[in-house]
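Lecture 7 notes: from sequence to structure.

We start with a single chain of 179 residues. Read the sequence below before looking at the structure.
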Amino acid sequence: MTLYISGLNGSIDKGLGKYLTDKKLITDFIVLDLTFQELKFNEQIKLIKDKIQNNSSDTIQIIAVSFGAYLLLNSFIDSITKVKSILLISPVLGFVSLKQGGRIPINYNNFSKALKNKTLNLPLETKIIYGSDDFICSEESVNYFTSFFPTTTIFKIENGGHSLPHEIVEREVFEFLSS
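Now the structure, written as tokens:
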């Protein structure tokens, strides 16, 4: 199974979601549309956990974008998962939004505690793609996050912001799914 989790207001009708469905690279998806956003945070996490745990596949790969990546990471707290690999694209990693004058993401204290207590159970194959000029997913936040998960592969796109160049993301996604 290959699961795609969009960012806020994401879609499978445009952008990366459209690319993935057009190329038949995913078998399932969760879009963070307005209906999804109306769910409580714990319900969002449960939906993601259930989608993973109720799948019969031995090999689960997940591509998650921005806040969708943050939700996915939260779903791994105190959970045993059968996920083989994850690709996080411009992920919200929690604390960076504070440094940019933004707001604290929901569940940040629990997320931060899980990092420090090592109760965030990531698959060994984890990759983060981010832009050097991303105001949400900064190099500092990536380095802090990966200090807890040294096996994480990092791919930084120079001069890239939060919305990364499609051709580079598509190439990285294809490489990720081919591994």
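The chain is about 40% helix and 20% strand. Keep this in mind for problem set 3.
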